[in-house]
Each structure stands twice: as C-alpha cells, then as structure tokens.
Amino acid sequence: MTHPAIRFEKVSRHFGDIKAVDAVDLEIKDGEFFSMLGPSGSGKTTCLRMIAGFDRPTAGSIFLYGQEVSTLPPFERDVNTVFQDYALFPHMNVGANVAYGLMIKGVAKEERKKRVDEMLDLVQLRGFADRKPSQLSGGQRQRVALARALINHPKVLLLDEPLGALDLKLRQQMQIELKSIQQRVGITFIFVTHDQEEALTMSDRIAVFNQGKIEQIGTPSDVYERPATSFVAGFVGTSNLIHGASAKRITGEEGTYSVRPEKIRLAYAADSFSPKMIYANGTVRDVIYLGLYTRYLVEIEGGDTLVIIEQNLRSTSMDVLKLRGQSVRLSWEKDHMTKVGG
Amino acid sequence: MHSKPDKASWGLTLGAIGGLLFLHFPMFVIFLYSFTTDEATYSFPLPGFTTKWFGVAMGRQDLWDALMLSLQVASVATLAALVLGTLAAAAVYRSDFFGRDAISFLLVLPIALPGIVTGIALRSAIGSMEIPFSFWTIIIGHATFCVVVVYNNVLARFRRMSGTQIEASMDLGANSFQTFRYVVLPNIGTALLAGGMLAFALSFDEVIVTTFTAGQQSTLPIWIFSQLVRPRDRPVTNVVATIVILITFLPIFFAQKISAESSETEGGSK
Q1: ipTM summary value
Q2: Which residues of chain A does B172 touch, with a Cβ-Cβ cutoff of 8 Å?
Q3: CATH 2.40.50.140 fits domain A241-340
Q4: What does the H/E/C string look like for chain B?
C-alpha cells in the first residue's frame, strides 16, 4: 500500500493562548495539486511551515510518505518551498540560485550546470543563468524560485502564496503554467492561498481553513457547489444563505441553506411547475446593471434578501432597471441548494 | 531655476574651499614641517628642505615598538569586535525578547560616552579585579567602542536582508553552518569590511581610553603625545603624524567607498 504524501494526525500549533492550528487531521495524496485556502490568520500558512520544518507542532504528528517528520529540521526533509517574497539570494546570479540545493548536496559542477539548464528551460528562462535577481521582473523571479525548489526533485513542493505579488494578468498566466508544470514533473504540490479563484483554477482538491481548523476538504466543484458550512459558502465565491422563516417557507424545514447567485432564475409571472425546482416569491429591492450581467437584490417571503446574477443575454439596461420594486418569482434546482452546518 | 545646476555660485565655491582649508590646513602644516631643517621651532618660511627626518624616524626603536603595538592592538581589537559585534547584531535582530531595545541602547552607549568616562570606569574596574595592566587591557578598552561600530553596521545590513533567505537556504538542504557561510556571510560581508576598517581606524588613533588602560606600553598616539611634552627631534613627530594620516586615510576611504557601493546595489533586489 502506498502512503499518502502528507498526513496530519491531530496536529496543533498554539502560540500562547492563540490556537493557530487546532487538532487538524489531513491527508494529501501522492501527485496531487492540493490547495490550502482561507483568510489570513486561518492557520494555512502555519500548516505549510510545519510541513517545511520552520515551525513545529505543539501536539500531533506529521508524516511525509509514512515517515514521521514532525521534529526534523528543514534541511533533513525532502520538501522544498517557494516563498511568498521568493527569497532569492541577491548575491548570487540566477544559475547559482537554482543550483544552490545541488551545490549543498555536493553534486559535480558539470552535472549541476546541466540540470540548471533543464530547470531554466522548464520555467522558460533559458539564457538567464548569468543575470542577478535584481535584474529580473517579479514574474521572472517567481520562476527562478520555482526552478530552485524543483531542481532537488522534492517529494512535495510547498508554495506559500507565490502569486500574491504579481499583477492580475501575470497571475492568471502563472496559474495555468504552474498547473502544467505540476503535471509534467508529477510532484505533489501544496499551494497556500487566500484567493478562492486561484484555488478553484488549479487544485485537484482544496482544504478550506478557518480559525485553525479545516471546514471542508473536497474537489473544487464539491467546495463550490456543496459547501459544508456557511463559512465555506461565504468564503468560496458569493453565496446566498437562507435561514429561519424563509427556509421554513421554502423547504418546510428549519436549517440553513446555501444557493449560488448564478443558479437562481428570475421570472416575472408564474411559469410551469416542476417538482425538481424550488420556488420563492419576492420583491426586487435593487438592480445593479454591470454590463455583462445584472445583479438583483430580492427580498423573499420570510425576510431574507438574496443576490441574483443574470447575464444580459437579451436585456438592456432599460429593461432591467424597470424591475426595481416589482414582484417576482424566483426558481432554482433542488440540486443547487445545499444544507450547510454552522 | 535661474542658474545652471552644474555650476555653483562663486560664493558657494568659496565657502566650500574655505571649509576644506579649515579642515585640512593643519594637516598640511604637519606635512610641511616634516621636511624642515629647523629641529626646535615651527618657523615660516622653512629655513631649509630635508628628508633626513624620515631616516631618523626609521632608526628610532621606541617609535617602531609603539607602531607595532598599535597595529597589534588595532588588529586584535578589530577581530574581537567583528566576532562580538556580529553575534550581538544577530541576537538582537533574530530574537524578540524583553528588554531588547534596552540592550541595543546599552551596546551603542560606549561610543557616545566621553572617552574619559569609559577610561576611568575601565581603570577602576580592571584595577579592582587586580588584573595587571597590559596589552590585553588595552584591547578590552578598545573593544568597547570597536564592537559598537561593527554592531551598528551589521545590524543595519541584517535589517535590509530579507529574513526568508535563511529559511530558503535551510529549506534547500543547508545546515546552519552552510547557511551562515553561503548566505549570511556574503550578505553582511561588506558591512563587516566597512565596520572592521572603521573599528581599526578608531583603535589605531585612540589616546584617552588607552592612557587609562595601558601599563608601561605606549601605543603610537601615546608616543606622539609624549613627544609633545618631552620634544626630541621635533620633526620626527611630524613625520610620524604624516604616516599616521596616510595609514588612517586608506581604510576610511575604502570603508566609505564600500558602504556607498553596497547601498546603491541593494534594495533593488528584494
């Protein structure tokens, strides 16, 4: 039987009274692109630092392919990190930066040079070996950091918000590139981010962190379409939470339900009834015309206000703005609504 | 706006020349009188020109002893300052403990304190511990202010260095020693050089603290001082002063150059 790449067993990291990470259980599979998603202070970066060895758990154990590593120093773990600020060595050129791990291991010079060239090819920086990090752009430094970490063929690559400092266009390009590099090298990637879109774009699975605990682990579609808790529903994309009187009216049951704004349809008159659908009556409180789509705020019976997003396929701003104050009927498929805990 | 930026007004030029003259004229006088033929007084114009005092200086054993002692003291004090100053800077930079700012202040204090106070404090401390005054007590005295120079330089460099570099090095398989050698040392190298040269220069011409901490030995500055009181071959003192100016000038010049260069290249690379 093969071991998971990373396994957390009731791992905690407390700083005094602050429970940065609180009894977390986690398994990351071999070869997976795994994201840790959460707001700042949710414990995701602390988890990453404990895998790297910069921090040690106050309780629990961390296993790397079955071997316990909880107390090993960073240089005795077969794990490499791409840092948020890249942490390139400013006194070395790009080639020496990338070769650093091999130099420490005592790999011969010709072999080092060959592998540095391969790595620079992989990250599309062929011919940059003699430049200094200060002569590179942010995106290029990012690639150097990636090459420097990957050249050691680590069992697991850790990425600590590596795209945070890049502008939007470059970030989107790097997301696609990171994913394709990961597929080519076949190494387990653990990616820490607070950007839900980034996590949804690249990951095989996502763990959503909140206050030192994991709220949900699942594929991007699991997390997006079937959020387990109201926190996940709110953090990953925008979501409507229906509770109390409104929930009782619609479903006949108490509880909290989540439904995504783009799943809800707006009808001005009662159309045909389907048992697969859920219906709610309401009044349009506000209409925000955004060109590509329109955002409606509709107060439904029972008091909750829902956000609805509809593409402006045929409607113009004149059409949609007329809806303000109108009575409408909302409908969505039963499958698109999930009951959430908490 | 009215005048070209590359041409200073003649008033400013005159002021600058005046300032430089004020600072350096005395040194020129010393330089001039190391070539005089009059051995007792400073008379102008020089009664004659001679280079014989350089020869006389070469032959004076007491002068050579003083010079060697000064060089040894400055070297050992600088070495001690490099080690202690770097360690202190690393401790203050990397850890966050109660009273850290107070300790930082206490480390810098000796350089602000008047030398006479440091001197008398060291004299009574060393005396009360019944340690004989020697070569090593001079070094202890000099180290008090040499450490500060190194500490300040290295701490400033640490603050500019991205802290994750050390983590990155460990992450890539380097142990603490390798990390220090390949990452920390190159980063603080020029700061050590600049700090070390300043420390050397400070130690080399120190008079006050040395007077209090030396035993029978006399360092070069003390020797010069004693020459003023009991003059013998007065121009020899001028010769020595000229040489000291040159010896001190070089390290300070390079230290400045290095600091200026590294502040230009750094910062862009973060």
Answers
A1: 0.80
A2: 75, 80, 100-101, 104, 148-149, 152
A3: yes
A4: CCCCCCCCCHHHHHHHHHHHHHHHHHHHHHHHHCCECCCCCCCCCCCCECCHHHHHHHHCHHHHHHHHHHHHHHHHHHHHHHHHHHHHHHHHHHCCCCCHHHHHHHHHHHHHCCHHHHHHHHHHHHHHCCCCCCHHHHHHHHHHHHHHHHHHHHHHHHHHCCCHHHHHHHHCCCCHHHHHHHHHHHHHHHHHHHHHHHHHHHHHCCCHHHHHHCCCCCCHHHHHHHHHHCCCCHHHHHHHHHHHHHHHHHHHHHHHHHHHHHHHHCCCCC
